[in-house]
Amino acid sequence: MRSRACAVLSIGLVVVSVDSASAFELTGAWATSADQCRKVFAHKGRANQLTFANFSGVYGGGFIAEPDRLRGKFENCKIKSRKDDGQNINIIVGCASGIMVSNVQFFLKVVDDDTITRQFPGIEGMEVNYHRCKF
Prior knowledge:
- The radius of gyration is 18 Å and the shape is globular.
- The chain has helices at about 1-20, 35-40, and strands spanning about 30, 40-45, 50, 60-65, 70, 75-85, 90-95, 100-110, 115-120, 125-130.
- It is built from 2 helices and 10 strands, in the order αβαβββββββββ.
């Protein structure tokens, strides 16, 4: 009986680890132009924290993905749910800007390890490419 329970538990752990291994690693800084990364992002403070540079929007902008949140220049969004389906990532976040909170849905398509495309369903031809910044 005990060995059967261990076998079932082992299979469950393998399934969980395979599932999480297939998730795309989104964590990091993403800019609309790879060669503008140092103009969009900066490291500040004693902790050398990654943040947005002054006038980052002039250079195309971007976002910072953390394990549990997405940060824009003026938004701070907590990830409520995430579903990876092969090359597609669907994320629902709760965002707070200075005066209000709203839920936003992101549809991302993985192009390669360092490129994603944000798609806007219902708006034909509307998409924005983001490139992973490497510092």
